[in-house]
Amino acid sequence: MGTREVLRIERRFRGPEKSGNGGYTAGLVGTALGAVAPDGTVPQVTLRLPPPLEVDLELLVGEQGAQLMTPDSLAADAVPVAVDELADAAIDPISFEEARAVEVKYRGLVDHPFPACFACGPANAEGLQLRPGALGDGRTACTWRPSADLGGEDGLVDAEYLWAALDCPGGWATDLEGRPSVLGRMTACVDARPQSGEACVVMGRLLGEDGRKTFTATTLYDSDGRIVARAKHTWITVDPALFN
Q1: Edge-to-edge strand list for the sheet holding 3-7
Q2: Which segments in the chain show pLDDT lower than 50?
Q3: The model scores a pTM over 0.85
Q4: Given 85, 154, 202, 221, which is the most exposed site by the fewest CB atoms within 10 A?
């Protein structure tokens, strides 16, 4: 027996100027599927088109998959995959202080293809304001203190925002200036939810490239240095002018 929900992606949660942030959108779909999917699996979400903003979307969820529908097309779908898909998604961390120091190397402050991005856009004052700087070894790192409005009544950060935080630190492990890209697929697992205001570190890593596709991974650590969430991504190179 499946469920149906109508939702909207508000403008705050944009990635490119005209569409939803990929990680946040994938988080909405993946979190819904993860609540009912079989044990030993994690959600893998594929974005089929730029998620439209401020439009009624229909989220259909069953044990074997989920679909996010616009009024006339499929925006995203998700399937459960073996948790082993994320076996290589745990990235060696650095400390909160080291991550904060490397944020000065965040290239998006100077040349960002989507400056209003909810996760890492310097022009989105309501966003997460992540600044993943390059470590020089294929990894990125940044700090994150989730704001109180991202948490539920229990004070823990809602899962879709964890997906959003796991998004762009992977993208910036690639050459986003030379190869502007958008998220095409994301597989993620949330093991725990940090507290609002907690001092977290997000690590990203480049895994490889194949034509227009780039493959990355990310790991979110809490203030005790424990992994609370991890993800893998496929990015697709695009012309930013078509999205902004």
Answers
A1: 3-7, 57-62, 65-69, 74-82, 41-47, 181-190, 227-237, 213-221, 200-210, 139-144, 133-134
A2: none
A3: yes
A4: 154
